[in-house]
Each structure stands twice: as structure tokens, then as C-alpha cells.
Design a protein that fits this description.
The protein is of the alpha/beta class. It has 2 domains: about 15-230, Rossmann fold (3-Layer(aba) Sandwich); about 235-295, Alpha-Beta Plaits. Helices cover about 35% and strands about 25% of the residues. It is built from 11 helices and 13 strands. It has helices at about 55-60, 80-85, 105-115, 120-125, 145-155, 175-190, 200-205, 225-230, 245-250, 270-280, 295-310, and strands at about 15-25, 30-40, 45-50, 70-75, 90, 160-165, 190-195, 210-215, 215-220, 235-240, 255-260, 265-270, 285-295. Helix 6 (about 175-190) links the parallel strand 6 (about 160-165) and strand 7. Helix 3 (about 105-115) packs across helix 4 and helix 8 (about 225-230) crosses helix 11 (about 295-310). The structure holds adenosine-5'-triphosphate. Keywords: Antibiotic resistance, ATP-binding, Nucleotide-binding, Transport. InterPro entries: AAA+_ATPase, ABC_transporter-like_ATP-bd, ABC_transporter-like_CS, ABC_transporter_ATP-binding, P-loop_NTPase. Its main location: membrane. It comes from Streptomyces diastatochromogenes.
Length: about 300
């Protein structure tokens, strides 16, 4: 696993979230498998993983919506339930149903009235860009607008931990930007933000720590840069003239993938220097040669595929 996060937390600091050897099974499926992790104040943490990796189950355990079969889950040193009752946790869940027959403003006011440390409803509406549609019935909202209402409910009061399960699904580009700008403000004020996402570019841009889950286990834990470095591979692209000997290219050492499109070749290699050296050995002369590190998305695919290969 990638080395621990760069966030230096003193050993005496009570973690915001503590998972200690946590396991959760559904029948024969181990959704969470001996998971241990600690989150500290002020961290913005992205939880990544392929479908079925256990992200939602992890968040449900953390919110006390599901009980672990083994291990312990603590939030601010107490049980999830106690932390939630104390108003320390705001959450936005993937499939959280919204009451239908009420207006956006009524629903947000209700959430504020239930929060132990509420914000003013008008401020919550404004922050989620809902003021214009405050009088609209919740069942008349578009998918992206409904997401913004869920976001408003998660930020109805002054919580220290904000948990978001795929928060920007369905939001358009400007709604996403506004959403993450607000989340940055929340983190800058010392709150911990934990979000599960399939948008790796969001994780790369927003998170200062990235957790990669796979089959309920933590495969990597570090900054986005550390995760990219862990994948090790590099992208090499170049143009060739004339007929391209694809079979020859596929025989190059250290390759993890080859893609030929027209006269352009894109490869991934775990040792780009050796691969390029061998390329010249084939007697071909690459033009416009570029070597670059992996993006977070490619690194994520490389790490999870390598794990799949190990297990199969
Ligand atoms: N209530 C349930 N009953 C049975 N199996 C479940 C239940 N909830 C989740 N699972 C299984 O547990 C595993 C982890 O599911 P989970 O929803 O936590 O993954 P995820 O990483 O959030 O996936 P996705 O990215 O698709 O949302 C999957 O194999 C899933 O099928």
C-alpha cells in the first residue's frame, strides 16, 4: 500500500473517523474486509474503487446505518450514532429519498430545525444555489437540482465531518464547480470532508488524500501524486511513418498496453526508458515522442487491474 498520507496528525489527536479491522458481509459477499483507517481534522479525502468495491457500505458503517460484523468504527472517538446525535456529522447519500410533497424551502427549514447547531435556512439555500427554486415542490426537481437539495440537507448545520456519496452525479458543470468551491470553503474552515466518487478528475483536483478500495480492502492510501507514482507506469506516444508492425510493437518489453490509431501509437510501460530503447532496436524511428506520467484515472485502473490479476 502507498505510504501514509502527508497529513501529519499527532498521535494524541482523536481521529475524526477510526476504522479498526472492520468487516461487513452480506451472505457470502465480503463487502468490507478487515478495513483499518484513520481520518484527521481538515482532511479532504476521496474514496475511490470500482463498482462493488465497498465504498457505500463503508460510508453506511461510518454513519451507523449498517452495523459491522467485526472490528470497531468510531467517529470523534464515540459511536457513529452518538456523533450524529451530537450534530457532528452531515451526510449526503447516493439514493437518499426526499420527501415529495414539500417545497425545497420547507425541506431545508425542517433539516435546519432538526440540527443541533443549525445554520439559517436562507443561507443554506443560497449556498446550495437553491434560492431561485426554493418554492418548487421537491418532486418537480431535475436530477441535478435534487442533488443540490441533498447537499443543502448535508450542510444544514455546523457539522465537523461531511460525508458525501457520489455527490456530483447528475450535476452540470457549473453546479459541480459551485459545489466543490463550497466544499473547499468547508475544508478550509477545518472540517473533514470524505467523498466517494467515480469522477477521478474530481478526486485529483479536490482531495488531499485518496483511498483506493478494492473488494472491501484498502489498496492504496496517499496523495493523488503518491497513487500515480505507485502505479509506476508511464504513457509513451509517438508517430510512425509507413506500415506499422503492430505485432512487433506488442513484443516490446515492459508494455502494459498498446493502442494504434492511424499513424499514432500510444503505449503504457512500466519502464519507459527500456521500452523506447527497444523500439529503436526494432528499426523504427518514432517521431513526436512524448513520455508522461499516468493520470489518476489510469493509475487507478493500473492498480486495480494489477490486483485483479494477482487474485485470479
Ligand atoms: N444490502 C445488500 N445485500 C447484499 N449485498 C450487498 C448489499 N449491499 C451491497 N452489497 C454487495 O456488497 C458489495 C459492496 O457494495 P457497495 O455498494 O458497498 O459498493 P460500492 O463500492 O459503493 O459500489 P458502486 O460503485 O457500484 O456504488 C457489492 O458486491 C454489493 O453487491
Amino acid at each position: 500500500m502507498v505510504g501514509m498520507t502527508t497529513t501529519a496528525a499527532p498521535a494524541t489527536t482523536t481521529p475524526v473517523v477510526g476504522f479498526d479491522q472492520v468487516t461487513k458481509t452480506y451472505g457470502s459477499v465480503r463487502a468490507v474486509d478487515g478495513l483499518s483507517l484513520r481520518l484527521y481534522p481538515g482532511e479532504t479525502v476521496a474514496l475511490l474503487g470500482p463498482n462493488g468495491a465497498g465504498k457505500s457500505t463503508t460510508l453506511d458503517l461510518l454513519l451507523g446505518l449498517k452495523q459491522a460484523d467485526g472490528g470497531t468504527v468510531s467517529v470523534f472517538g464515540t459511536s457513529p450514532r452518538e456523533a450524529i446525535v451530537a450534530g457532528r456529522v452531515g451526510a449526503m447519500l447516493q439514493s437518499g429519498g426526499l420527501m415529495d410533497e414539500v417545497t425545497v424551502a420547507e425541506l431545508v427549514k425542517l433539516a435546519c430545525s432538526l440540527h443541533p447547531k443549525p445554520y439559517k435556512a436562507d443561507d443554506v439555500l443560497a449556498r446550495a444555489s437553491l434560492t431561485q427554486i426554493a418554492d418548487r415542490k421537491v418532486n418537480k426537481l431535475s436530477g441535478g437540482q435534487a442533488q443540490r437539495v441533498r447537499f443543502a440537507l448535508a450542510t444544514a448545520g455546523d457539522s465537523d465531518l461531511i460525508v458525501l456519496d457520489e455527490p456530483t452525479t447528475g450535476m452540470d458543470v457549473s453546479a459541480r464547480h459551485a459545489f466543490w468551491a463550497t466544499m473547499r470553503e468547508q475544508a478550509d474552515q477545518g472540517r473533514t470532508v470524505l467523498f466517494a466518487t467515480h469522477y477521478l478528475e474530481e478526486a485529483d483536483a479536490i482531495a488531499d488524500r485518496v483511498l483506493v478500495l478494492h473488494r472491501g480492502r484498502l489498496l492504496a492510501d496517499g496523495t493523488a501524486a503518491e497513487i500515480k507514482a505507485k502505479a509506476g507506469a508511464r504513457r509513451v506516444s509517438f508517430d510512425l511513418e509507413g506500415e506499422i508492425d503492430e505485432a512487433g510493437l506488442r513484443g516490446l518489453p515492459f508494455l502494459t498496453s498498446v493502442d494504434v490509431s492511424g499513424q499514432t501509437v500510444r503505449i503504457q510501460s512500466s519502464d519507459a526508458d527500456a521500452t523506447v530503447h527497444a523500439l529503436y532496436g526494432l528499426g523504427v524511428y518514432p517521431r513526436n515522442l512524448e513520455v508522461a506520467g499516468l493520470g489518476l484515472e489510469q493509475a487507478f485502473v493500473a492498480i486495480t487491474e494489477a490486483e485483479e490479476a494477482k487474485q485470479s
